[in-house]
Amino acid sequence: MESLDRRRRVAGLGLVALTVAGGLTACSGSSGESSGGDAPVGASQAAGGGTYTIWDPYPQFDDTSDWVKLLGQCGTQAGVTVKRTGYDTTDLTNKALLAAQQGNSPDVLIVDNPVVSTLAEAGMLTSTDETKIDTSAASPNLLAAGQIGGKTYGIPIGANTLALYYNKDVLKKAGVDAGGVKDWASLTAALEKVKAAGKKGITFSAIGTEEGSFQFLPWFWGSGANLTKLDSPEGVAALSLWTDWVKKGYAPNSVINNTQTTSWQEFATGDFAFAENGTWQLANAKKAGFPYGIIPIPAKDGGAAPAPTGGEFVSVPVQQDTARYATTQKLVTCLASTDNSLTTDTTLSYIAPTEEVQAKQVEQNPDLKVWVEAVKAAKGRTSDDLGTKYPKISEPLWKATQAALSESQPPQEALAAAQTAAASATQ
């Protein structure tokens, strides 16, 4: 009866999962447009067989990559053969949902962390209590992205997040010390000096999609605001900050249409002092042609603001034959082990989910120290037990941001409308 009930929930929440898959993938660290690997969609999951399937959102890695070799090694250690398929992130979620409806899920599903709660509510994921997967070493703030209703549905494979890149030459010309940027007031004062020196202040993404919400959240959370009350005084202060920057010319009007990619391209011209962007831009920063640095996004009154996490969870879909879970647990434990985590997160340009591996990453690459600190302060978008409510809150939030930045509504009015819409959608 449990299996039938779960399948009914999968079918009932199908459209929700498809919507989430399309709306929450912009901040994942994966890339690629086509599927790869050697497992056909709908591969047999017959009990007692020697083959276990793994689906992941890394189609850019082929069979010669360290990632795919690691999957094979984990299979060998568990005494089975691994058949792996890599999909584009959105395609992966859709195919995983379809497989669950058909009772033909992969044994291991590596999925973008905001989607975990949706798939769990749809009844297609097992909890770590069921599969006996040890999550105790994972940082609680990262693990929270995969928790709902008091249960945990998988383990984070790694995380990325946001910080502020800065151009050392631009700041030097403006007489600004990046180390003195500790809160909103000092950041705004720095932007004023940069503009007076003839350069541009800060660029970010405020596009009317999940990317816009993703980039606004550090400021929103950094004000002390909560997603269950969008129009709080704290939330209004955060949106007013962005709106004032655009009005005063500290940020360009283009932020309204900027994706995280086009925002980075603006910073790469060398004209901007600051850019809000992610861990995934490190390689591009080194190619920018000017000296750069990175600082955490400051909270309103000081300290690092909580930025949202990107990255995936290693999860275990429901199987009709529960005897498979024992071997699946060995596969997941292997992938999440300390030694393998270091290799995997280096390959994926992620910060590891455990303090032990984070320390090793910083030892190997001191440039990652600021990102480790940012990840420690970060939080999942579906945390606070929001789960599937998050997409219904995020869309009104990005619409409010667009309305305020375009001056069609003042911040207070825009967020009041957003709160009304979000409350109605999440009832």
Q: Ends: how far apart?
A: 28 Å
Calculate the mean pLDDT score and round it. Answer: 89
Based on secondary structure, the structural category is alpha/beta
Q: Characterize the biggest β-sheet.
A: 6 strands, mixed
Oligomer: single chain
Shape call: globular
Helical run tally: 19
Going across the biggest sheet, name each strand in turn.
1-3-2-4-12-7
The helix content is 40-55%
Low-confidence stretches: 1-5, 10-23, 25-48
Our Rg estimate from Cα atoms comes to 22 Å
Walk me through the structure.
- By secondary structure, this protein is α/β, with parallel strands linked by helices.
- Helix content is about 45%, strand content about 10%.
- The protein is built from 19 helices and twelve strands.
- Strands 1-3-2-4-12-7 form a six-stranded mixed sheet. It has a four-stranded mixed sheet with strand order 9-10-8-11. A two-stranded antiparallel sheet has the order 5-6.
- A hairpin with a 2-residue loop joins strand 5 and strand 6.
- Helix 2 packs antiparallel against helix 4 (about 90-100), helix 3 (about 65-80) crosses helix 14 (about 325-335) and helix 10 packs across helix 11.
- The two termini are about 30 Å apart.
- Residues about 1-5, about 10-25 and about 25-50 have low confidence and may be disordered.
